[in-house]
């Protein structure tokens, strides 16, 4: 391992790795793993270096391309991102999104209000994705919090294929830990049935991790029994962090915030006003932390002119949190002689490089206490620990924990007079029989296989609502939505393009947000809408704009825009229902074109470019899709090339062509795929030459119907159409249309489609249909169809019997070939077999899911979408138009 030792030093600047870090990197093959390493022993650097060593430096294909780092809190995400970015920069391999991605590693932050970059457009390259469990698990479940709806399937596919998930500080993840285990078990089940290409594994990591936590379902029992484990054995426990640490313990009974404040000020003074480091107070709720903070500031024993008092909890915006690490949450600012009192909640339990001379902590579950003890005398020496017992009488008073957890921790502490790492490890080894009680884990909700399968479909209901997945991410009442404040004048509405910045978002418990914005409800009083003095909005996918909030719109993961004049935030204390002053605004941002395209049903932003034909844009997309798939799924490279060339055929529909109008400059043809922004006027969107409008039109559905039209015209007995079903349909009394042989034989590009087998045809059709993430596994009318005012059946702006004109397409050998006119047949949308197109669309998708499973099918979908969007971001001149229009 000498080579790894040298590599580790180049990544971290440390002289040499710990033994456990070398052991982790020694394994040539990646696999699921438990990592139980105490605080202070380099878990972050150990894991990052192992992945970089194998996947990036040695190019080991058995290791996944994406490192997905999932953490329970934003402050941990920000710290981990800093470490990852700095380490990869030291290797000279950090991708800056401006240069070629080849050989470089992107580092992307997935948090509300943060532009994560275009990581989802580069499935063939290496990247590190770092985010909270809310943002990452929701995306892995195809319901990404804060992500545009149409982007959900891309992220779903890419986060369940070719990934190494790092579930870090799992003791803080609640039900999210169980969900991650279920997801890994489902992925492995798909692998065993042949449904996965890219490897996907999970490493669960914590100082208090227990193997038994994985044994909560039949699906995860195999994981628990066979999984590898890294920990520091008894013979490895030596050195300063083991031998030179003393943390004497005492318990105190208290009853209220004022008492805790008095004890805090008194203890801080008796310890020399921070002579051995700051005093850290950790309690279990935000409300209690705020009350203690206010009481400390009022305490007469406090020298406010000298002692710095800080409040830390999860209900602050990043704008206020951003200075914490530089000001007081780092090693340099917690040295002996630091006259400071920090009052905090669970947010300091992990990932905070702070060492307190005095730790005062509320009694909490044993895993939480272990983490809190690690914030005292973190780098050796001596620190004093005081545990506060509020003597709760029931679960409501003990919340967010259970009374049983608190009682068990209290009983365990009776065995200690010192809580140094060595004391804790020896105690657990001597008393293994009590470990199940000290480290209980009983998730309130367990994700089942049929539930993740059902989440593959991203279609909203007619009101735009979706399946609520929040119970699989966090199970407490602290499930959050995100709020940002903007100065909106009384007679104005928010701009359509406005989005929150990372610095402006604040996490708020969704139930409390409902009471704050709409008022409290009771058995006799309903509050379904905003209070009279409140103005707040949420994004409407169907309308493509911000709409006024109703109570039902306030659910976990939602993003809410609130008028700054409505209050609700104090820069010193964080979010507060009682704060009435105008909130200082953190400047919002304007959405990029790609985000707007994915955030609303009717949008053609991605079609805005220089003039290009369907044929040329298709050829370029097919070439790139082939190049990507050669690296990821080589046996489908030819199919991806064909899908790329076909994906925009539906743009020849008159509704799309009629949207592009620019006097004297529009090429006189019916196969325009891209046009300058000046050619796109909202008033003309989906307006045909006849004057008829087709709101809700989706060209990808039109292109899929064109594929079916090729078979119906030239090969009605094709295995993907009527071939397997003709006899059954005839015997069942269905009237089969007589096939009329067309005047011309199929063209070269049409023969490419006809020569596919049924499975390949269905996959091609699915890739074409899903290439914007807006029409995927089901076809049904959208609200705009139902408001059309006529009786013709229509789906996404397409009427049965619509015609696409003949257009030109490139073939596999890069020659031009004509695609004949196409007849739009909506019969495929109906359930069951039909005598025109055979299987229904839903049956075709279900057949694909049976072969690939949801994770791989979405991953394949993401490959074509990545190629399309990367090509659409360029400005390559179309040679087919050179003689027609001045560009």
Task: Please give a handful of descriptors for the protein shown.
30 helices; 887 residues; alpha/beta; 14% strand; Rossmann fold; 7-stranded parallel β-sheet; 4 domains; 34% helix; 32 strands; 6-stranded parallel β-sheet
Global structural class: alpha/beta
Q: Could you describe the largest sheet, including whether it forms a barrel?
A: 7 strands, parallel
Q: What's the β-strand tally?
A: 32
Low-confidence parts, pLDDT < 50 over ≥5 residues?
none
Rg, alpha carbons:
30 Å
End-to-end Cα distance:
59 Å
Content of β-strand = 5-15%
Q: Strands of the largest sheet, in order across it?
A: 3-4-2-5-6-1-7
| Count of helical regions | 30
**What does the average pLDDT come to?**
90
> What general form does the structure show?
globular
Helical content (DSSP H or I, runs of 4+):
25-40%
Describe this structure in words.
- GO terms for molecular function: ATP binding; helicase activity; hydrolase activity; metal ion binding; nucleic acid binding.
- The protein is of the alpha/beta class and 887 residues long.
- It is built from 30 helices and 32 strands.
- The chain has a 7-stranded parallel sheet, sandwiched between helices. The chain has a 6-stranded parallel sheet with strand order 9-15-13-10-12-11, with helices on both faces. The chain has a 5-stranded mixed sheet with strand order 18-16-21-19-20.
- Helix 10 packs across helix 11 (286-298).
- The chain is globular and about 100 Å long.
- The two termini are 59 Å apart.
- The mean pLDDT is 90.
């Amino acid at each position: 391992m000498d080579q790894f030792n040298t590599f580790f030093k180049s990544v971290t600047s440390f002289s040499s790795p710990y033994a456990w870090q070398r052991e982790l990197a020694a394994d040539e093959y990646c696999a699921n793993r438990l990592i139980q390493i105490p605080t202070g022993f380099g878990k972050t650097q150990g894991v990052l270096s192992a992945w970089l060593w194998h996947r990036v430096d040695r190019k080991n294909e058995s290791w996944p391309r994406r490192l997905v780092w999932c953490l329970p809190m934003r402050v941990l995400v920000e710290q981990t991102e800093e470490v990852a970015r700095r380490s990869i920069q030291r290797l000279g391999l950090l991708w800056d999104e401006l240069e070629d991605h080849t050989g470089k590693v992107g580092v992307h932050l997935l948090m509300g209000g943060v532009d994560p970059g275009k990581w989802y457009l580069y499935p063939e390259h290496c990247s590190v994705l770092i985010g909270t469990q809310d943002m990452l698990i929701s995306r892995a479940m195809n319901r990404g919090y804060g992500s545009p709806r149409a982007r959900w399937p891309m992220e779903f596919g890419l986060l369940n294929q070719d990934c190494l998930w790092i579930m870090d500080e799992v003791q803080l993840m609640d039900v999210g830990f169980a969900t991650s285990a279920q997801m890994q078990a489902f992925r492995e089940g798909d692998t065993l049935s042949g449904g996965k290409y890219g490897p996907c594994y999970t490493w669960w990591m914590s100082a208090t991790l227990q193997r038994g936590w994985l044994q909560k379902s039949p699906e995860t029992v195999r994981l628990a029994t066979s999984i590898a484990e890294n920990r520091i054995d008894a013979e490895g426990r030596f050195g300063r962090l083991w031998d030179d640490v003393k943390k004497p313990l005492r318990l105190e009974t208290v009853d209220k915030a004022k008492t805790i404040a008095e004890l805090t000020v008194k203890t801080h003074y008796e310890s020399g006003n921070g002579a051995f480091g700051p005093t850290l107070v950790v309690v279990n709720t935000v409300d209690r932390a705020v009350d203690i903070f206010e009481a400390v500031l009022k305490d007469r024993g406090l020298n406010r002119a000298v002692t710095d008092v800080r409040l830390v909890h999860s209900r602050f915006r990043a704008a206020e949190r951003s200075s914490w690490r530089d000001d007081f949450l780092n090693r340099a600012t917690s040295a002996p002689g630091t006259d400071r009192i920090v009052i905090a909640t669970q947010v300091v339990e992990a990932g905070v490089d702070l060492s307190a001379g005095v730790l005062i902590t509320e009694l909490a579950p044993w895993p939480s206490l272990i983490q809190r003890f690690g914030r005292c005398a973190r780098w050796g020496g001596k620190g004093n620990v005081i545990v506060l017992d509020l003597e709760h009488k029931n679960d409501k008073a003990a919340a967010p924990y259970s009374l049983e957890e608190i009682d068990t921790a209290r009983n365990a502490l009776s065995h200690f007079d010192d809580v140094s790492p060595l004391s804790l490890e020896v105690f657990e080894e001597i008393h293994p029989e009590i470990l199940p009680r000290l480290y209980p884990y009983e998730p309130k909700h367990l994700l089942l296989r049929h539930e993740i399968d059902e989440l593959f479909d991203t279609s909203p209901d007619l009101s735009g609502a979706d399946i609520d997945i929040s119970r699989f991410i966090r199970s407490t009442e602290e499930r959050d939505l995100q709020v940002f404040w903007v100065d909106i004048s009384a007679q104005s509405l928010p701009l359509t393009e406005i989005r929150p910045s990372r610095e402006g978002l604040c996490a708020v418990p969704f139930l409390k947000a409902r009471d704050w914005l709409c008022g409290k409800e009771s058995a006799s009083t309903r509050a379904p809408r905003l209070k009279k003095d409140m103005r707040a909005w949420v994004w409407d996918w169907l309308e493509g704009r911000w709409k006024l909030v109703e109570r039902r719109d306030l659910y976990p993961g939602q993003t809410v825009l609130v008028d700054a004049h409505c209050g609700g935030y104090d820069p010193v204390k964080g979010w507060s229902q009682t704060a009435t002053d105008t909130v200082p605004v953190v400047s919002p941002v304007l959405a990029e074109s790609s985000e707007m395209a994915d955030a609303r049903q009717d949008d053609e932003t991605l079609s805005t470019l220089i003039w290009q034909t369907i044929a040329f844009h298709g050829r370029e997309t097919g070439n790139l899709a082939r190049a990507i798939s050669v690296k990821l799924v080589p046996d489908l490279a030819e199919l991806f090339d064909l899908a790329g060339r076909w994906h925009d055929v539906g743009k020849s529909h008159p509704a799309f062509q009629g949207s592009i109008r620019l006097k004297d400059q529009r090429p006189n043809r019916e196969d325009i795929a891209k046009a300058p922004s000046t050619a796109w006027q909202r008033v003309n969107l989906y307006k045909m030459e006849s004057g008829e409008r087709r709101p809700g039109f989706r060209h990808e559905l039109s292109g899929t119907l064109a594929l079916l039209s090729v078979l119906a015209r030239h090969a009605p007995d094709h295995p993907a159409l009527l071939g397997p079903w003709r006899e059954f349909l005839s015997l069942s009394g269905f009237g089969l249309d007589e096939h009329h042989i067309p005047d011309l034989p199929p063209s070269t590009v049409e023969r490419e489609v006809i020569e596919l087998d049924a499975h390949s045809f269905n996959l091609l059709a699915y890739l074409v249909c899903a290439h914007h993430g807006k029409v995927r596994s089901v076809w049904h009318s959208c609200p705009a169809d139902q408001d059309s005012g006529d009786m013709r059946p229509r789906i996404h702006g397409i009427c049965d019997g619509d015609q696409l004109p003949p257009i030109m397409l490139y073939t596999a050998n890069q020659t031009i070939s004509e695609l004949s006119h196409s007849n739009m047949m909506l019969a495929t949308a109906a359930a069951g077999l039909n005598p025109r197109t055979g299987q229904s669309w839903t049956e075709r998708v279900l057949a694909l899911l049976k072969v690939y499973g949801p994770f791989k099918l979405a991953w394949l979908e993401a490959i074509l979408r990545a190629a399309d969007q990367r090509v659409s971001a360029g400005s390559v001149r179309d040679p087919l138009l050179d003689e027609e229009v001045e560009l």
